[in-house]
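Ticket opened by: R.M.
Priority: normal
Category: complex prediction / small molecule

The reporter submitted a protein together with KG4 and asked that the result be attached to this ticket for the collaborator who will pick it up next week. Submitted input follows.
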Amino acid sequence: MIVLGIETSCDETGVGIVRRAADGTLELLADEVASSVEEHVRFGGVVPEIASRAHLQAMAPTMRRALDTAGLELSAVDAIAVTAGPGLSGALMVGIAAAKAYATGSGKPLYGVNHLAGHVAADTIEHGPLPPRCLALLVSGGHSQLLLVEGLTEKITEIGATIDDAAGEAYDKVARILGLPYPGGPPIDKLARQGNPRAIAFPRGLTGQRDAPFDFSFSGLKTAVARWVEKHEATGAELPLADIAASFQEAVADVLTAKAIRAAREHGIDTMVISGGVAANSRLGELARERCAEAGITLRVPRPRLCTDNGAMIAALGAHVVASGAKPSPATLAADTSLPL
Ligand code: KG4
Ligand code: ZN
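Result attached by the on-call engineer:
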């Protein structure tokens, strides 16, 4: 079965195509992404209107490239999947409208799917079907969640989430404080490798006895970095950028991995998936590997290209949904900016 997936929930226009075998394994036939990130750089974050317009411009060419890469015509595809939410309203609408047009024009069934479940499904492209139960840590510019996955198409339960900023958002905001470019993850990650992660004791949000064990908070950490920088600048001394980056990064990786491991233990789970743009972070990967090995947990992290927003993950989830026997979405399918899992 061949499924084409369309993703437009944020600033990436993605079209992916997968072939699913009866045993649930996937073959990636195409994964084309056009990003409008450059257009958002001078604003220091994604501007919804700009993202929507960029999707409108990129949609048809990205679709063409994906079909050409796969060596297919749309008529060879069995179903079309599209991100129905969560995400930016206007951005989602462009993808859904395009998907409806392609589905109607080709007579193929259309399946609206959840973006967050798509991030988890991305891993099945790389590592095959998931075990019956696993834990997913989703960390990107828009989300920071701990999900209990009991069947990708059956039951995904959110057991924790950020109460303020997403992990990637914290990276982007701290980068701005340090005068580094947007998006902030890659430059901070690079700088941190030359710094001392124990130089500054930044706070670990929501790790107190009475705090929600699986929720995250990164806004206090960002403020702590801003205060530390302000104080240090007042002394006239040069900022130890690498040490700040390393200490901030350590605080983020420490909290994310500690909470994820604790959640896995409490739910008796032995497989963890980490996905989303921040999954590309070198220290998060290192600490997760270390702590998962200690706890006897199998760690699955898809390659960075599949961790960030893309159409292949939507095609992958769509293929699993079609295989589950679910009905296609109605013609009234609409964007839902906070689509539940
Ligand atoms: O998944 P993604 O491409 O888009 C969504 O937000 O959905 O994630 C982008 C986020 C940005 O906030 C970026 O700063 C962060 O992922 N990021 C990283 C790294 N690479 C990207 N954060 C930490 N370390 C990295 N190496
Ligand atoms: Zn995403």
